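Example record

Each entry pairs one chain with its bound ligand, NAP.
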Amino acid sequence: MKTQYYSAASLDGYIATEDDSLDWLFALGSLGESSYSDFIAGVGALAMGATTYEWVLRHSAAVIAETGSPWPYAQPAWIFTHRTLPAIDGADIRFVQGDVAAVHAQMRAAAGDKNLWVVGGGELAGQFLDAGLLDELIVQVGSVTLGGGKPLLPRRLLPPVLRLTSARQMSAGMVELRYDIQK
Ligand SMILES: NC(=O)c1ccc[n+]([C@@H]2O[C@H](COP(=O)([O-])OP(=O)(O)OC[C@H]3O[C@@H](n4cnc5c(N)ncnc54)[C@H](OP(=O)(O)O)[C@@H]3O)[C@@H](O)[C@H]2O)c1
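Structure tokens for the complex follow.
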């Protein structure tokens, strides 16, 4: 039962461009070529920030085309925001703000014996890390550089915090790195 930050990043450490485009990521290949289906099968609850949620709202046509639904997750989800955002029909979501530890306890209670997924962005993942709640970082590193954008994890993590547990090539465009986070 881990809390995992699973994300895709450019080689220079960005998960989206400054204007929140993921076009660079989709150009690298399909979800089917990644570890996503095995990963999501182990997830019992997930959390994301407002910008990530708004990306799903803005790209509903593409999300429906890919997954058959405007909300691609069956698991309960917690959306961090200070604003009133529109809900998505049929989505099991709740809007929250503030202390990630309190939300983490709710997620843990909902997830049973499954893992918790911090979807992103990086600052929200950083808040879970700061609270000592992040167990694993899984990053699909794409064969692209963006030169700027939304950072993977805007924190300074020096040895021995990250312990590399696996490095696996998924395709010519992607390598997956897994790290245990020492607390
Ligand atoms: N490459 C990938 O695998 C991947 C994965 C995930 C996301 N993404 C993309 O990367 C970008 C991430 O954007 P981002 O870094 O700006 O992050 P984000 O975490 O999605 O959104 C940040 C916003 O979340 C809200 N927030 C964060 N912590 C909060 C807290 N404790 N309480 C209340 N609200 C809180 C704030 O919104 P308010 O404005 O409401 O205050 C904040 O401005 C998006 O474009 C997303 O689509 C990519």
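The CA atoms of residues 3 and 134 lie 5 Å apart.
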